[in-house]
Amino acid sequence: MADPLVTLAALLQPAFDAVAGRSGVDPVVRPSDRADAQANGALALAKELGRSPRDVAEAVVAEVRRRGDVRGTLEVAGPGFVNIVVDGSFLADEVARVAADDRLGVRPAARARKVIVDYSAPNVAKEMHVGHLRSTVIGDALVRMFEFVGHQVIRENHIGDWGTPFGMLIEHLIDLGEDEAAEHLSLGDLDGFYKEARAKFDASDDFKERARARVVALQSGDAETRRLWQLLVQLSTEYFNLVYSLLDVRLTDADIMGESAYNDGLSAVLDRLGALGLLTESDGAEVVFPPGYTNRDGDPLPLIVQKGKGGFNYATSDLACVIDRVERIGSDLILYVVGAPQAQHLSMVFDVARLAGWLPEGTDAVHVSFGSVLGSDRKMLKSRSGETPKLVELLEEAIARAGEAVAEKNPELADDAKAAIARMLGIGAVKYADLSTDRVRDYVFDWERMLSFDGNTAPYLQYAHARICSIFRRAGIDRSSLRAVVPQIVEKEERALALAVLGFDSAVADTLERYSPHRLCTYLYELATAFTGFYEHCPVLKADGEVRESRLALCDLTARVLERGLDLLGIGAPEQM
Ligand code: ARG
């Protein structure tokens, strides 16, 4: 069953707010045996207002009638419940309103914000693995949704392109020769390159010395060293771009704001913290002690801003980054789509930035945290050889597996159509498996499940969409002609589908409020399920006249919401499969 309750809650909220004299009252809409739903919000509100619950419930009903937000039967029952049965004609008008709207009923945000989404952020000369998949996919979905509701969105790819390992990486590059190194890296053998450099570093004092000297040269801006560093960055980002284009995400080179971009701001971080009296010297390092953090022994935990030997670190560049985002860009909402292990680091960075006044009132920095991707053994996902699997290999396997499924389902398709569909299906399956579980939880990477045409999966939603497209293709109907139709909402399944379609706006709002794409996934799954119920019980092409037209209009609108919803998740919806 689709969740009409969410829709009703959204429709009832303004009346509850009016009675309460404040915004954001929860109407507490719950399922009911006797009605479409019951709203129990008057009970809590009565306490707040010091009135009797029945009184408040009556006031809400009167307000709903006055505003005309919901047409139907509203009755106060029991201690102060409101039972609601909406009129079919009311649902029909609402559906027609949404069908005529290019935004499918999704309202623009009341207040547009300047939102920075920090996502993907792989490290130069290191392989992209499934952790980066999560950040990339979740971040990209949030980017699409924030843009859709009218916020100004700035993508930032905070790649790891600075720090001591670059000494050994550059020396290894010199040993290999630039051409040879370029060949390794462009093949995507990033981990191999890194490991070889590391092995030399561990084995040879001479190499170690060269690497150290190279870091100094890099930091002091030596031109040749910078050129070699730039080459490493470029070769790695070219490889990241291959993965991004496979994944169909919005990131481009223009979005790269790596750690090195903040080098010029690092000493200012130190100076400003010093001037504010926030710095403490500890074992020769400059640190800040934000209140509330302790180590295992209960001692205060420092955020290290400058290391003993004068070097800056990850925390320093993240502080410079906050300053840049707030003071130069003027962002008032900064989302860090970063794995759970960095929770403490980010929380300390945010706290220090607040103490220093770099995150003023009204500017929010949020850690959009996520869990791990696990193998079937519920341990960190490993490839057959026991290594962390390369993201690009996972994606290629997904497309290959989807290709088999498409060939089986629809053997008549032309080869290039098959390839295009396999790509949408395979990539969609991987992305959806990631997006559809609550991001804070771990999930098990399971090919069978994610590629299944049943259940809460991308193929199920894509198939529901393609099936509707095929109805129109078979009947040769121009879909756009249906968008002015006011449907007839009579059958139980028609009501359920109408209510589901009307829930798109609140599903998007709910997703954005919690930065949790799985909420949109759950909604789309419920919508597709409502459609299946409708399609099984309500003949469409076999119906006559106005009923046929009405049902075709419901089909069209369902397909549009599915397509748009998948698009907001970064997933394609083929017209046939
Ligand atoms: N490059 C880092 C990693 O792979 C993630 C960076 C996240 N963003 C940030 N502003 N710290 O773990």
Structural commentary:
The protein has helices at residues 4-20, 41-49, 53-67, 88-99, 130-148, 165-176, 178-186, 190-203, 205-219, 223-247, 266-275, 314-328, 343-355, 391-409, 415-435, 447-450, 458-475, 492-502, 504-514, 518-537, 545-568; strands spanning 29-30, 37-39, 72-77, 81-86, 114-118, 152-156, 280-282, 285-288, 303-306, 333-339, 364-370, 373-374, 443-444. The longest helix has 25 residues, at 223-247. Among the domains are: 4-86, Gyrase A, domain 2 (2-Layer Sandwich); 165-255, no CATH class; 391-568, Isoleucyl-tRNA Synthetase, Domain 1, CATH 1.10.730. The protein contains 21 helices and 13 strands. The radius of gyration is 28 Å and the shape is globular. The two termini are 25 Å apart. It is α/β, with parallel strands linked by helices and 577 residues long. It binds arginine. Arginine (ARG) binds at residues 118, 121, 123, 158, 160, 318, 321, 336, 338. The site of arginine has 9 residues, from helix 12 and strand 10.
Number of helices: 21
For the biggest β-sheet, the strand order reads 1-2-4-3
Write down the overall mean pLDDT.
94
**Ends apart, CA distance between termini:** 25 Å
* CATH topology-level fold name of the domain at 391-568: Isoleucyl-tRNA Synthetase, Domain 1
Structural class: alpha/beta
Tell me the overall shape.
globular
Low-pLDDT runs of 5+ residues are none
Largest beta sheet, briefly? 4 strands, antiparallel
Ligands present = arginine
CATH architecture of the domain at 391-568: Orthogonal Bundle
> Helix amount, in percent?
40-55%
Number of strands: 13
Per CATH, the class of the domain at 391-568 reads Mainly Alpha
| Proportion of residues in β-strands | 5-15%
Rg of Cα set: 28 Å
Within CATH, the superfamily of the domain at 391-568 carries the name Isoleucyl-tRNA Synthetase, Domain 1
